Amino acid sequence: MDFKIEVTDAAQTYDLGMKLATYLEPKDLILLDGDLGAGKTTFTKGLAKGLGIDRNIKSPTFTIIREYQDGRIPLYHMDAYRLEDGGADELGLDEYFNGDGLNVVEWSQFIDEDLPKNYLRIVFTRQDDKGDDFRQLEFKPQGERFTEIAKQVVTQNG
Amino acid sequence: MSSEDNLILSFESSCDETSVAVVKNGRTVLSNVVATQIKSHQRFGGVVPEVASRHHIEQITACIDDALTEADVDYDDLNAVAVTYGPGLVGALLVGVTAAKTVAFAHQLPLVPVNHMAGHIYAAQFEKTIEFPALALLVSGGHTELVLMPEPGKFEIIGETRDDAAGEAYDKIGRVMGLSYPAGKEVDRLAHIGQDTFHFPRAMDKTDDFDFSFSGLKSAFINTVHHADQIGETLSKEDLAASFQQAVVDVLADKTVKALNAYPVKQLILAGGVAANQGLRDRLDEELKQFPEVAFVKAPLQYCGDNAAMVGAEAYVGFEQQTFADSNLNADPSLEFDWIKGETA
What we know:
The complex is a heterodimer. By secondary structure, chain A is α/β, with parallel strands linked by helices. Helices cover 27% and strands 26% of the residues of chain A. By secondary structure, chain B is of the alpha/beta class. Chain B has helices at residues 37-43, 49-71, 90-106, 116-122, 166-176, 184-193, 215-230, 237-262, 278-287, 308-320; strands at 7-12, 17-24, 28-36, 80-86, 111-115, 134-139, 144-149, 156-160, 267-271, 295-298, 338-339. In chain B, the strands form two sheets. In chain B, strands 10-9-6-7-8-11 form a six-stranded mixed sheet, with helices on both faces.
């Protein structure tokens, strides 16, 4: 089952991230996919805020993983953008996925084969015909737990 | 070689490059061997994931041998070993840290831990001796920071990027333009041919702090390209590059000038991979004319990217201050300078 939400600006993307954060627990995995500038990092900033993390969330592109330990649960913000040509096997991703925090992965298509079975994938798509800041967020959960969470977030939003 | 001379064997493996160097007295590079992933990919006729992940391990012993041979020194001539222990990719950092610890242990040498960012700043020392207090503008693929150095070995962040690093923004808009990674050099080249015709927004330019933001600029750039695509119009790559670069350089230069007004220093140091950018170098040259009492020190071009020589330069300070690590030294992927007191992150 898929769930779609349309947002008209970056603030709404941020708010959705905040809302989702309240449902999440350690070992949860959120995949954020979409073009450059589609709102993935904005969404993560909202998620972090929702977890009670006050530090600024910077792009993890260069270091691939950034860790934030000061929220309700740890946040592991990962970006596979630089792994398009391989190299994921040296990062010990399993240890994060089975660890003590929430895992958020941008550009997850580059590490598809290293992903666990259950996750919530959110696909960000620009709606250029409507306006520069319009985006569609499509929630694609794998597993019962994430299906329930996706349903909650999307219904609450409507 | 005089017996008074200090020789440090230094290691750098925080990201894509594996590098080993021998540096004399923190000032003179005797050797600086750099092996990049790119070469190894070429050797194997393309990208092989296993090769990429083991690259640092494969390269490092050969790099040590080459660095010693090129410097014409032996382990017995060394006074210390130094290594970048963060920030960076944990797997990559560990290779350098382990190698450095092994050499230090085997040859009974003190081990100096170096912050990668401090290393970038100290690359300036190959151009001119650093005088304190100094201010550093550190711009690379992973960082965009203004760092105050009140005295040797002390680094305080006064401003940083709130989202993307400047170098990262270059690479990402390069991707949108269809340029190959890393795109910084090509964007810089195109920018010198084109004109700033698009007038992209200068984010944070008027705020009171010393922080930067490049994600809004990235979005504006992408929107411009998308709109053109939709109506089938082709934009001038040169003008796009020039407009983007002008926006980046304006923000970097304006915040740097503001910092120089707030903190009287003897030197402004420009360091990091993006310090090789000609547009930025030229602009800061121009701006520094209003600060005749501030010397402008640019890290030499060949030491702007990641390399072990800069690590050896910074390690000399640690050696003199005797800040040594023991065999418990670990990689710290999230290592950061502290913020200046009284400011918030």
